[in-house]
Amino acid sequence: MDKVITLPLDENTVDALKAGDRVRLSGVIYTARDAAHQRMLEELEEGKELPIPIKGATIYYAGPCPAKPGEVIGSVGPTTSGRMDAYAPTLMDLGLTAMIGKGDRSGEVTAAMIRNKAVYFGAVGGAGVLLKKAVIASEVVAYPDLGAEAIRKLVVEDFPAIVVIDATGNNLYETEVKKYEKSLEDGQWE
Amino acid sequence: MKIHVDEIKEQVRKGFLRINCRLGPDVEQALEKAQTTEVSPIGIGVMGDILENMKLAAGSQSPICQDTGMAVVFLRIGQDVRLTGGGLNEAIHQGVREAYQEGYFRNSIVEDPLRRKNTGDNTPAVIHTELTEGNDVEMILTAKGFGSENMSGLRMLKPSAGRQGVIDFVVDVVRQAGPNACPPFFVGVGIGGTMEMSAILAKKALVRNAGEPNADPYYHQMEEELLERLNGLGIGPMGLGGANTVLSVQVETYPTHIAGLPVAVNMCCHVNRHEKIVIKGEEDRG
């Protein structure tokens, strides 16, 4: 059974989310990937405000295809989260509560998640059309010059994801893979 | 025999419009088989999402994945063909430009690797050209996504490392790719030649039809052994654990130097987009 979650996340919801939960997210998420993160962190260093309200926010690591006429957005699957690891702890210390992407995170990111009670959702990589269907509104809110990499405010409804790392640091990439690893010696499922 | 470059441009345009929205039957079959053999409950769910996405994309002419890739074209030009009407490379770039605009595909190419300004039309393509015998032009198109490209690897092994050294390196690269490169994977392995040739062989291996065995039984056996080893890693669909880490392993080889053993591993996610197109030359009376 999927858990139905309304964004922004509050502390009780974050506490209740456990690695392995399948969720359907509804509410506002912001897209940002490499170039947008780099620019946000540069601007913070210059003493500027972030272009999005970061407290309680959910960032989706994604750069969509252009929308066809009549469409809200083009295909919009997750990009590899690890490339944002250098920036994520700073954003979580400022209030970022959830991230959506694919792939493993660094120890620094997990530590910042535990420290700030944040959650990391995985979306199915490559499933750009399936995920596009969950987006009901989209607008560029910062860095339009970055094109696909601009920051977009998306309103989503029943966006499918899986809790991959929860706010206590449980990590599916570590726990699940071990269950299916075969040892070379006995050739058996462990 | 002659071929007008506009014909090549047009086939490139149509080809990229097709492969970004609809997977070939070889890839579709490999994905469907994976769903039936998956043992992890999370993995079964992920495979269901992948298959549903594939059908939605084909049905709506939408890109399967938002990373519509860097356009790569393998050309084999028959030496009896005369190309007319303009530059060959520019015709290919133009075909890519038109396909990416017409298909509402994402433009993912930057004009300089460090200064990183987007070219705005997904050009240039990467073009590998080979001269061969005959009257035709053969093209293999692939739209290579970089989630997986980034996790590829190349190593110059010592000849003493042998077959086992190659296997260990491939396993190492796939283990490192883990959940980042959108498993289940297609794995292309290039062995031999020179440094750069092993990398090109690895990509050629990826654009072979999935499951089409290496013609040499020695290397086919190695493909099978690698497939078993890699699926034993337990990485599974999306790296969330399971029996399907790799859908197919394909090896290509070339003679090499007595002192070396180059090995390249080109990773590809489950969205392995490729298509072969043959253009026949017309009689040239000019």
From TrEMBL, chain A:
Keywords, sorted A to Z: Lyase
Occurrences of domain Fe-S hydro-lyase tartrate dehydratase beta-type catalytic (ranges): 11-175
Signal sequence annotation: none
InterPro entries on file: Fe-S_hydro-lyase_TtdB-typ_cat (IPR004647), Fe-S_hydroAse_TtdB_cat_sf (IPR036660)
Highest taxon in the source lineage: Bacteria
Keyword Cell inner membrane: no
GO MF annotations, alphabetized: hydro-lyase activity
Family, as annotated: Belongs to the class-I fumarase family.
Name this polypeptide is given: Fe-S-containing hydro-lyase
From TrEMBL, chain B:
Residues annotated as domain Fe-S hydro-lyase tartrate dehydratase alpha-type catalytic: 10-277
Protein's UniProt name: Fumarate hydratase
Keywords: 4Fe-4S, Iron, Iron-sulfur, Lyase, Metal-binding
Organism encoding this protein: Alkalibacter rhizosphaerae
Keyword Lyase: yes
Keyword Zinc appears in the UniProt entry: no
InterPro entries given in the database record: Class-I_Fumarase/Tartrate_DH, Fe-S_hydro-lyase_TtdA-typ_cat
One annotated GO molecular function: 4 iron, 4 sulfur cluster binding
Origin superkingdom: Bacteria
Enzyme Commission designation: 4.2.1.2
Family: Belongs to the class-I fumarase family.
